[in-house]
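cron nightly-structures :: item 1 of 1
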Amino acid sequence: MAPGHREKQKMRSPVLKTRKEVVSELIRSLPGGCQYAADVLSLKKKKFENHAYESNNSRPLTDAQIYLLELRTGTTHLPEYISSMYGGMFVPVAEPESLDNVEMYARCVQAAAKKGTVDHLIAEALKDGTINESEAEAILHADALHLAARHAEVLAVIQLHASKSGKTK
C-alpha cells in the first residue's frame, strides 16, 4: 500500500525552533505557497498572510488550520516541533487499512535510510575531528526522526500481526 501522508515527509527536514518557523516552512512546502494555503483555508490571501506571519495584530493560525495544511503537504512539522519542546519525538500511528507486508517493508527501508542519514551526518561532522553545536543539532534531529520511524515500524508490526481474537499464545 502507498504510505500515508505522514510517511511522505522528506528525510532531511530542517530543525524548526519556533512556531513561526513551522508555519514558514509549511508555506514553502505548499505548491502555490500563501495563495494555495489561503484557498485551502477559505481565506483571502492578505488575511491568511496576516495570520501566518502574525502581523497587523492578527492571531496566529490555529493548530487545526496548520493540520489541514500539513495534510496537503504530507509534513508533520507542528507535532515534531511541539514534541521537541518537551524533549520527545513525534511517532505517527499507522492507519490499520494501510498495513500489509509491502507497507511493512517500506517502513523498514525508511527507518534504515533515516539511520543512514544519522550515520552520514556523524561521519561528515567528524571529518574535522569535532562536532560543533549546529552539527550536533542536525545529528540529534535526524536521530529523532530515525527513532520515530523505527518506533512507528514496531507499532505497525504489532498492529498488523495482533491477535484478532484477543487470545495470547
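cron nightly-structures :: done
Residues 96-161 form one domain.
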